[in-house]
Amino acid sequence: MKIISPYLRPYKKLIFITLLLATINQVFSLLDPFIIGKLINYYSDTKDKVTADVFVKAVLFFIALAIGAAMMSRIAKNFQDYCLSIITQKVGTDIYTAGIKHTLAMPYQLFEDQRSGETLGRLQKVKTDCERLISSFINIMFTSLVGLIFVMIISFTVNWKIALFYMAAIPIIGFLSSFLSKKIKVIQKKIVGETTALAGSTTESLRNIELVKSLGLTDQEVNRLNTNTRKILGLELKKVKYIRTLSFIQGTIINLLRNAVIVFLIYLVFKNEIKIGDYMLFFMYSFFIFNPLQEFGNIIQLYRETEVSLNNFKQLMEQPVEDIPANPVKMGAIKEMEFANVSFKHLTSTRYALKNVSFKIKTGETIAFVGPSGSGKTTLVKLLVGLYKPAEGNISYNGTPYTNIDINELRSQLGFVTQDSQLFSGTIKENLLFVKPTATDEECMTALNRAACHSLLNRADKGLDTVIGEGGIKISGGEKQRISIARALLRQPNLLVFDEATSALDSLTEEEISETIRSLSTSKEHITVLIAHRLSTIMHANTIYVFEKGAIIEYGTHEQLVNNKGLYYAMWRQQVGEAIES
Ligand code: ADP
Ligand code: MG
C-alpha cells in the first residue's frame, strides 16, 4: 500500500476537502433521526400538558430541523461525490501513465520478453482497483468511522450502557469479516495471475490472426482460450462460494445482534432508564452502524485484490530503465562508427548470438552483412541502433563509446527499415510525419519519390492525405516497404539501416527497391548498412561481412569474396544458379 501513496500526495488538499465533506454528510444524516427521536420524546413528555396550538408549532419546528439536516447532508454528499471522482480518476490515470512511461523507458531487451497485452492488462487492473479502493475507503470506511464516533458520543450522553453494548458488537463483526476474507486472498491472487495471462494470450492470438487463420488453427485457438476461461470461471465460482458463505454467516450474526439491541433497549425503556424516543433513535442507529460493517468483508477483499495488483505494478516499476549517461558527450552528426570485439547474448539464450565482432565504417560507405538465417545479423543491427547493449566489447560513434552518448541523439539520426515494417492506419502523410512531425508536404513528396513510390501515388486519389490500410486503399507488401523506406529517408538520416527490407518481396519489386537503395548509397551523404538475403542487392557494398553462428568468418568486396571461394562464394553460386534455372 506504500506504493500508492506517492500518487495520492499531489491531491492531499482535495482529499482533505472530500473527507471534510464526508464528515458533514454523515453527521447531518445522523442528526436527522436524532431530531425525530427528540420529537417523539417531546410528544411523550408533553402529550396532555400543552395546547394543540403550541404542540403543532413545536412539531413543525422539529420537522423543519430534520428537513434542514437531511438537506445539508445531501448537499455535502453531492460535493463529496464530485471531489471523490476527481481524485479517483486522476490517481487512476496517473498510475496508468506512470506505468506506460516506465514500460517505454525499459531497455528493449526486457520489453521484448514481456507480452504487451499482459502489461496493459496489469496496468488497467491496478487502475480500476485503486479507483475502487479509494472510493470505498472514503465512502464506507471513513464515513462509518465518523458515524461510529458520533453514535458513541450520543449514546454516552444518553446512557453509557448502550455505548458499551455497541462497543461489544463491533469487534465481533469486524473479526468475522477479516477472518473470512483472509481465505479469499489466496484464491484472489491466483485469479488475478490467470486473468492477466489470459488477457496476454488473447491479444497474442489476435495479433497473430493471419497465422492462426491461414493455418486453420482457429479451433485450436478457441479451445485454448476456452480452457483458460473455464479455469478462471472455476476459480471465480470458488471465490463466489466463499463470499456467499461470508455474507450468510455475517447476515445471520448481524440480525441476531440487532434483535439483541432491541431487547436491550426495550428493557431500558421498561426500567425507565431511557425514553421511547431514545429507543427509536438507537434502533435506527443500529442500522447506521451495522449495515456498513457488513461491507467490511468486501472492502477487505478489495484491499487484498488491490494489494496484489499494486505488487504487480511495483514489479513492473522496479524493472530497470535504460541507463542514460549523466553527462552525455554531444556527438553531432554520426561520421564514423566502430564495433570492437563485441559479444552479445540474448536474455533467454545460453549461447552467444554474436561473438567478437569488429568492424569500422565511415560516412559515404556502404557495408553489408550476409549469412544464413539465425547467424546474428538482426541482433547486430539492434546493437548498432542501441536497442541492445553489448555484453562485452565496445561500440563507439565518432570515437565516443556507447556508454557516454545520448542514445536519443543517436536514434534521431537513424533511418531503420526492417522486414516487417509497421505502418499505422491513417493517411500516407500521417505515417511519414510520425518520424518527423515538422516535415513539409514537399519533403514528404521528395522522400516518396526517392523511395520509388510512384505507382502508389498514382493510385492515391487524395495524394498525401489518402488513407491507407483499414478503411483506405489497400497496399501491397512492396508498397508498404516503400513507404517505410520513404519514412526512413524523410529524416535525412546519417545512418541508414536496411534489415532484410526487401526479402519479403517478389524479385522484380526487390530489384526495383534495391535500385533505389543503391542509388541512395551512392549519394555518399550517410552510412548505409545493408542486410539482404539476395546477394545481388548488396554486392555493390564497400565491404561485405559474412556471418556464421554469430562470428565474422570472412569479409571483403564482392570480387574478393568470390575469389576466396568460401561461404560467400557458395551462397553466390547457389543464387546465380537459381537465377539461371528460373
Ligand atoms: P539473423 O537476423 O541473422 O537471422 P538473429 O540475429 O535474428 O539472426 O538471431 C541470432 C540468434 O539469436 C538466433 O539463434 C536466434 O534464435 C537468437 N535470438 C534472436 N532473438 C532472440 C531473442 N529475443 N531471444 C533469444 N534468442 C534470440
Ligand atoms: Mg534477421
List keywords for this structure.
18 helices; six-stranded mixed sheet; binds magnesium ion; 582 residues; 65% helix; four-stranded antiparallel sheet; elongated; binds adenosine-5'-diphosphate; alpha/beta
Give the class from helix and strand content and strand pairing.
Answer: alpha/beta
Please write the string of helix (H) and strand (E) elements.
HHHHHHHHHEEEHEEHEEHHHEHEHEEEHH
How many angstroms separate the termini?
Answer: 68 Å
Give the distinct bound molecules: adenosine-5'-diphosphate, magnesium ion
Overall pLDDT score: 87
Computed CA radius of gyration, to the nearest angstrom: 36 Å
**Helical content (DSSP H or I, runs of 4+):** 55-70%
Low-confidence stretches: none
How many E strands?
12
State the strand order across the main sheet.
6-9-10-3-11-12
| Biggest beta-sheet profile | 6 strands, mixed
| Silhouette | elongated
The DSSP helix count reads 18
Topology:
Blueprint: H1 5-8, H2 12-46, H3 52-105, H4 108-112, H5 116-158, H6 160-207, H7 209-214, H8 218-270, H9 276-318, E1 336-345, E2 352-362, E3 366-370, H10 377-384, E4 392-397, E5 400-401, H11 407-411, E6 414-417, E7 426-427, H12 428-433, H13 441-450, H14 454-459, E8 467-468, H15 477-490, E9 495-499, H16 507-521, E10 527-531, E11 543-548, E12 551-556, H17 558-564, H18 567-581
This protein binds adenosine-5'-diphosphate and magnesium ion.
